[in-house]
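In these records, each integer encodes one residue's backbone shape. Here is one protein:

___
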Amino acid sequence: MAFKVLLIDDEPLALEGLQLWIPWESLGFEVCGACRNGAEGLKRIDELDPDLVMVDIHMPVMDGLEMIEECRRRGNWSTKFIILTGYSDFKYARKALKFRVSRYLLKPLDEEQAVSEISRMAQELIKEQEQHYIGQIAQREQEILTMKEALMGKVLSVEAAHLLESLSRSADDWNVCLVQVSRDEYGRWSSLAAELLYGWNAIYMIRLRNDLVSIVFGDVASARQETRETVRKRLEALARHLAGFHAFMAIGSAESSLTRISNSRITAEKALLHAFYDAERNGIMDYDALKDHAFQRLYNQIELSERILGAFQLIDHAIYRSVVEFIEQSFRQTRVHPDEARKFVIYLLHEIRAYMGAQLTENSGDSNRLFEIPNLDEALLTFDDLIDMLQACGRVCFELLLKDNTYEAHGIVQDINDYIHVHFREGLTIKMLAERFFLHPAYLGQLLIRKNRIGFNELLHNLRIEEACRLLQMNQYKNSDVSEKVGYSSYHHFLKQFEKRMDMSPNEYKKNV
């Protein structure tokens, strides 16, 4: 970007010549304005903030040196000045040096000399700009290091405390927004965050650990409501963009000084815990809204563990699912602390793995991976993630158990099938069979499916309709009598099952026989 230059001379021709004769653009400048006396020049300097001013000494209203003196008195020491004059008296040069005038050119201007001096001035400005930029980076790094110490609650040195107090004056309230993001996604996330938060002055983004980033931001009282809305909108925009990441956000309580910013970080961490149960991919946990929602650490671990293992002993997947659903509902309702919930689910996974030792050894491979915590930072595992892991383990483990027990149960399944073929005309149920053969109904149902390739009810209806066809062929009974003889208490039910299997009504069947 070109440097700005302001031209000041009371002679119109001289002013026009400065604009036309000097190749400003090729020298890295653009003429931002021109005026004809020092008083007007002061006003334009305030308005335009030029990098360089070329000014004649002798002008009406206020001469060039008076203008420079007043400019410096007002605290402007960054603007560079080149003096133009037809007088070579030493006293002017000496006074100009007092006010840090960079160059002194005599009229009439030597165009070659002027271009040379302005070119050197451009190089000085570039060098100062680079040094200023490096200084800004160093200062920012120092501010971030000091703020990180304050965030972590470390004892600050006198110099660090003074620095933070100085920074605190740029806003009336300071707050922390914590972002928990997978370490594998941090690079991509930080680029997105820097883009969305660019141009916001009172803000610092500090990485506290591999999976946790602190966004420290200020709130100005003079426009607090507007500022808060702006802050919230930017953070909500960031949260919406985080929908594609495994990440959560939480805002803590406000503090008036950065020296106490650790309090805001602590409350933000408390709010972040609620993402375990209430995680929204594009939402923000707010401490002020959640501070009264306490977590519990007590729950009946022994009873729940026994119920889970009991389901495995019965080889009853339905009981297992019901216990997992109970864990999900009760933990959500009582708000078991995330640390306790994670520990308990991991404990259950270890217990299930130990119980399934033999089957897992024989079926090594993908099944074993079910018991491994996903390759995520543990703090990013939500309650939904853990419940999904338990359900997935249950599906695979019970499939293995039923598979392994099918061969062992082959003999008893034959006995059960024989019993069904004899008693299908009675009000037979899976529960009655389970009680007779001392098996759990769910387990018995699975055994029959594996042996017969169809479920118990389907087998029962098939046998009844097959018998009904035999009786209808005899043409000795009414349809309703046939329905009762094969075991149906409802003729409508009999009719439905008959038509489903035979694709015709009983009367049509008798006509076709």
In short: The first helix runs from residue 12 to 21. The first strand starts at residue 3 and ends at 8. Strands lie at 3-8, 29-35, 52-56, 80-85, 103-106, 173-181, 203-209, 212-219, 247-251, 284-286. DSSP finds 25 helices and ten strands in the chain.
